[in-house]
Design goal:
mainly alpha, Growth Hormone, Chain: A, two-stranded antiparallel sheet
Length: about 500
């Protein structure tokens, strides 16, 4: 791992289109505090590793309550344990991708971000297999199944203290010596100095905090925030959790005799497709995989609708199974892993925690809404229920093609960098992406103003006629921007 991947191209502003970065979370050391001067609610995240270690306590507590549910009022302990584990899952889903994204080199940031999703789907598959009645899914062994969540919590408690703190976070807090020590553990002592200089050039000093109210009210962050939240809503409103929550019932309606094993097959395809995405995300790009996944899911939703309408006829069960497997596979190619790390790539160090906390809240809210509403919607629409998800998938595919920028290989955002622009359009000549879009495109859509200059950037430079040399603009006189001279003194009559 060479130091050149830590901020490749950080000195060339003209080559940078979008400011990538890591992932944020809603956990804060001091909670949410009101601050003056228009900052609004200020989210102050603690060090990444410390936050993950602290949140791991919730995993131990929730797992212990679930594993010991038979020792007391079972339903009460299960509800409390699930509530605690839900809080832990919300924290981990933000903290883990944020930490991984901040320690990953630029060329591997997408692949390592996909590992987060790979761990999730692997855990789902293991739980599905162990939940079979022949293993731990029986009336006498279910507490052991619920208590197995203590195993990964114990592994994290043992291994996480051995990991370095995020150098990007430390440098953003002005702790350069600790950041250098962490980089020496990640890239080696010889490359740590150059990597630290690259990070310093990207951050350009301590990263300013951006509160939630400032983030939501600022036009500067409106478009990237819309994209980050839209990606998370796309992930959940695609219908994937309707498949996983009610897959057994769906396979029964399709006519399969062993629906539990078909559910496990869907979980295996889930893992295999995530591995495929891990290898493709740095080659094909985020935007390409997201579009491919959405369009593929749309086709599978239509095929599943046809299979459900042919219930009872020969081949309907097999067709339904293939449609579900394809739906899951296309989800893990793009819409599954990409929103967790691409949304964070749209924001600089300062607004990243608040932005990703808001995007994560949208994800879990949509997850809850789909899980609660799907049975009623299924009763109302019958076998046409997945046409509703197909319509949503078509809308999200259009949203992706119009609004989602490509962040593959982009260096991490400078401390006050403005958000990136939308995908390049026909006014980008020669295949090269312009730093500023043409007037017909706007900065983040038609009619938008050009993006704000980066905080700490050098003053703009203008070309002189003829020689190709550049010079700084003339100093302002009398508060005006032009080079005019002061008026001569008037004579007194």
């Amino acid at each position: 791992m060479g130091c050149g991947h830590w901020g490749r191209g950080h000195g060339g502003r003209g080559r940078q289109w979008g400011p990538p970065g890591g992932q944020g979370a809603c956990l804060s050391r001091g909670g949410v505090s009101a601050r003056g001067r228009g900052r609004g609610l200020d989210v102050a995240p603690p060090p990444r590793k410390q936050a993950m270690i602290a949140s791991n306590v919730l995993a131990f507590l929730g797992g212990a309550l679930l594993g010991g549910a038979k020792l007391g009022p079972s339903y009460v302990l299960i509800i409390i344990g699930r509530f605690i584990l839900g809080a832990y899952s919300g924290l981990a889903s933000g903290l883990v991708p944020m930490y991984v994204g901040e320690i990953a080199p630029t060329r591997l940031r997408g692949a390592l971000g996909t590992v987060h999703q790979l761990a999730i789907v692997t855990g789902i598959l293991v739980a599905q297999v162990l939940g079979l009645e022949e293993l731990l899914g029986s009336a006498g062994r279910w507490p052991l199944l619920l208590g197995l969540g203590l195993v990964p919590a114990a592994l994290q408690a043992l291994l996480l203290p051995l990991c370095p703190e995020s150098p990007r976070f430390l440098l953003g807090r002005g702790r350069g010596a600790q950041a250098r020590h962490g980089l020496s553990r990640l890239v080696g002592a010889e490359a740590a100095g150059a990597a630290l200089e690259a990070l310093g050039a990207e951050l350009r000093g301590p990263a300013p905090r951006v509160g939630l109210l400032q983030l939501c009210c600022s036009r500067r962050y409106r478009q990237p925030l819309m994209v980050a939240v839209g990606l998370q809503l796309c992930q959940q409103l695609s219908g994937i959790n309707a498949i996983f929550y009610y897959s057994t019932a769906i396979f029964e309606r399709a006519g399969l005799s062993r629906p539990a094993y078909a559910t496990i097959g869907a979980g295996a395809i889930n893992v295999a497709a995530t591995v495929l995405s891990l290898f493709l995300v740095e080659r094909a790009g985020r935007r390409t995989l997201q579009l491919l996944g959405l369009l593929g899911m749309l086709g599978c939703a239509i095929a599943l609708t046809v299979a459900l309408n042919l219930q009872g006829r020969p081949g309907a069960g097999v067709a339904g199974l293939l449609a579900v497997l394809g739906f899951v596979a296309f989800f893990e190619v793009g819409p599954g892993p990409i929103p967790w790390f691409l949304g964070a790539e749209l924001f600089a160090q300062g607004p990243r925690p608040a932005a990703m906390a808001l995007a994560g809240a949208a994800n879990w809210a949509a997850n809850f809404a789909v899980g609660m509403a799907f049975p009623a919607v299924q009763r109302a629409l019958g076998p046409f229920v997945f046409l509703l998800f197909g319509a949503l998938l078509g809308g999200f595919a259009l949203f992706t093609s119009l609004r989602l920028p490509e962040t593959r290989g982009r260096p991490s955002a400078r401390g006050g960098a403005a958000p990136p622009g939308p995908p390049p359009c026909c006014c980008c000549r020669g295949g090269a992406v312009r730093t500023r879009p043409a007037p017909s495109c706007g900065a983040w859509g038609r009619g938008a103003a050009t993006r704000s200059p980066t905080e700490g950037d050098p003053p703009p430079r203008k070309k002189m006629g003829g020689g190709g040399q550049v010079r700084a603009p003339p100093p302002k006189i009398n508060g005006e921007g032009g080079p005019q001279m002061s008026p001569p003194p008037q004579k007194i009559k």
